[in-house]
Design a protein that fits this description.
alpha/beta; 10 helices; seven-stranded mixed beta sheet; Quinone Oxidoreductase, Chain A, domain 1; 336 residues; six-stranded parallel beta sheet
Length: 336
């Protein structure tokens, strides 16, 4: 049975309906009936072949939520009709050192949902069953999609960096990633400082859980925070006054980057003198995704979303490119 999907025939070409034959379902795979799919900046980059790894026709979409429609013969932990979600990763080898240690997201052979295969702007999408994560009943299926990309991107560092409830944490950027990071860190118990270049976002930042607000354009205000923060999470994709942010860290503090900033520059002495560090991370493992979803259900955490029909995917792309909305756009599959 063919699958209908919205695809671009070449870089930056408008999306149009196609039909494709997905082939035989693998024994360790599942097929998901797509209900909603979030739109992410990575979809824009892949659509334009900015990373030189796109294949056309290209079907975007890697923040998928839906119900399990079919499963391979070796899949025993999921049931047909079960609500599941799928993010950036769709396969891992399971036998390398990274997988065996639980770090499936660092697998050398990891497969991505929209790299070399068709993504979630479709009636159905396939993935290795390991990466189809059950959705807790407490979560709204319409808004949960962005958790599987943006959400896990900012939740994973909380575990990887060993963040404690007593820590003071800064979040740079309070857009699509940052507004979820503020919620996570607040409910984790941290004292949270939001850094943003938009003064009009202060009220929203405090609503998402920030206890303090600092303009990211005011280097002097940042420097007044010298040696006060245990962690600074950078969610933006621009270069910053790195020395000012590093100086705001306590001894042994960490600057952790999840936004695709072009480069980071600082004096080595800034790191050596106070034993500060710089790190980064991709999305999380299936186990971490499970933990994040449980945490969201327990504390009522959800991304701020706007729902649009998937048939208006081109307009959604235009909005994400030009308007840069602070919330997440989510497309509702409307093929019927």
């Amino acid at each position: 049975m063919n699958i209908r999907a919205y695809a671009a025939s070449a870089a930056r070409e408008p999306l149009s309906l196609i039909d494709f034959d997905p082939g035989e379902l693998g024994s360790d795979e599942v097929e998901i009936d797509v209900a909603y799919c979030g739109l992410c900046h990575s979809d824009l980059s892949m659509w334009g072949n900015d990373w030189m790894q796109s294949r056309y026709p290209f079907v975007p979409g890697h923040e998928v939520v839906g119900t399990l429609a079919a499963k391979g013969e070796s899949v025993t932990h999921l049931e047909l009709g079960q609500k599941v979600g799928l993010g950036w990763y769709s396969r891992s080898c399971g036998v390398c050192d990274e997988c065996l240690s639980g770090n499936h997201n660092l697998c050398s052979h990891v497969g991505q949902t929209i790299v070399g295969r068709h993504g979630g702007f479709a009636e159905k999408v396939r993935a290795q069953a390991l990466w189809a994560t059950p959705l807790p009943e407490a979560l709204d299926i319409a808004s949960a999609g962005p958790l599987f990309c943006g959400g896990i991107t900012v939740f994973n560092p909380i575990l990887e960096c060993g963040v404690l409830p007593t820590d003071r944490v800064g979040v740079v950027g309070i857009g699509g990633l940052g507004h979820m990071a503020l919620q996570f860190l607040n409910k984790w118990g941290c004292d949270v400082t939001a850094f943003s270049s938009s003064p009009e976002k202060e009220e929203a930042a405090r609503g998402f859980g920030a206890h303090h607000y600092v303009s990211s354009r005011d280097s002097e205000a940042i420097r007044k925070l010298e040696s006060t923060l245990d962690l600074i999470l950078v969610t933006v994709n621009v270069e910053l006054d790195w020395e000012a942010y590093l100086a705001a860290l306590k001894p042994k503090g960490r600057l952790h980057i999840v936004g695709a900033a072009p480069k980071v520059e600082c004096a080595v002495s800034t790191l050596l003198e106070k034993q500060r560090s710089i790190s980064g991370s991709p999305l999380g493992s299936p186990a971490t995704v499970n933990q994040m979803l449980e945490f969201c259900g327990r504390h009522g955490i959800a991304p701020k979303t706007e729902i649009m029909p998937m048939s208006e995917a081109n307009r959604a792309f235009e909005r994400l490119s030009s308007e840069k909305p602070a919330h997440r756009l989510v497309l509702r599959a409307d093929f019927d």
